[in-house]
Amino acid sequence: MDSSSSAGTALDLAAPARPETPQDGVRVRREQVRGLDGLRGLAALYVVLFHCWLYTFPGYPDSSAPPWLDGLMFGRLAVVFFLVLSGFSLAISPARQGWRSGGVGEFLRRRAWRILPPYWAALAMSLLVSFCVVPASHFGPPTGTTVLVYGLLAQDVSTAPTPNGAFWSIGVEAELYLLFPLLLFLRRRWGAAVLAACVTLPVAASGLLAAGASPVEGDNWLAPHLAPVFAAGVIGAGVISAPDRIRRLPWVRLAVLAALPVLVLGVLQGSVWTVNHYFWIDLAIAPAMAMLLAAVATGEPAFLVRLLTTRPVRALGDLSYSLYLIHLPIVMTVIRRVAPHFVARGLPTFCFTLAVGLPVAVFTAWLFSKIFEIPFKRNRSWKSLTEHGTSWWTDWMAKGRRGNRAEQPAEHR
Known about the structure:
Blueprint: H1 36-56, H2 75-96, H3 104-132, H4 144-151, H5 168-190, H6 192-209, H7 223-236, H8 244-247, H9 251-269, H10 271-276, H11 278-297, H12 302-308, H13 311-318, H14 320-338, H15 347-378, H16 382-407
Helix pairs in contact: 1-2, 1-13, 1-14, 1-15, 2-5, 2-7, 2-11, 3-14, 3-15, 5-6, 5-7, 6-7, 7-11, 9-11, 14-15
């Protein structure tokens, strides 16, 4: 998804929550929620695999891929998970502060600072690849409208040839950020049930009024439909500051029970039916995803939390946003420009892409994150960023001078 993809999420990393003073007899957990970054990293990796599958085997959703690869076709659900995770992560700090955001303007400024610099850098890279190497859209190469629409994050409200098929969910998430303060207000004023009803009932009603009760989605205007998904994450974050009797609920089993009817229906109806009914599948699977996040936030299941906090998975989570942003131009270049020179179409191309494109995408995302993402995560203003850059450059130059002196013969010192 996001492109088919967040994928997404969306991929959005919430700032660490500030510890709060316990209130009303509820012991507020001060530790950072473990495992969320790992989940984000694994979801981003699945999106990469989905795109390797999607662009290798034509005919989606009735793909020409071997049936044993059908498990890779649900990239859309990975993006839905990104959006649930985004709502959950962003709501952690407000949940500890009585569902207050600390100021709408400050929230939006922090989101823009965190999301836009890597996004704009990835947009420039995607435009370059789409112009010079391989178009990202069957509508042809990007146009001036593409630069304007995608530069302003307006791709969910206006149509233009895409420079990167994964960017659609970034536009959706940007719109949901604008909605986030209202969601917090509803949660604070009237509770989780009213919040869920306010965002879900209008969407469900619009779906039931569509022809055959099966809405046909276009390339944009998806944010209203996906708002309940984002809100499910916000509601799920309530477990962070909930009393122990709520935190001790069997969230893993509840998540399985909530997901089981959706999974059974998907198996009985088939993958093509599932893809063609994502409108309802998204809404149905979101509560199970929110419960899974609640389980991880409370340390269950222990084996999953241990896996998610291992060093490789945490490292993948650290670069998940960059991986989501820049992987698709790399994957498409490998599939359409490199692989034809070495292997046959179909499964050989897929295996070649996994062997070449996947590691290149991960390494490039790591390098990209070092330049365009991590500095903006570690510094919260241009002043701090500039001072940090100046300090780094000064230290680097000083080390270079010391190294040169050490290499000189004594008589030349």
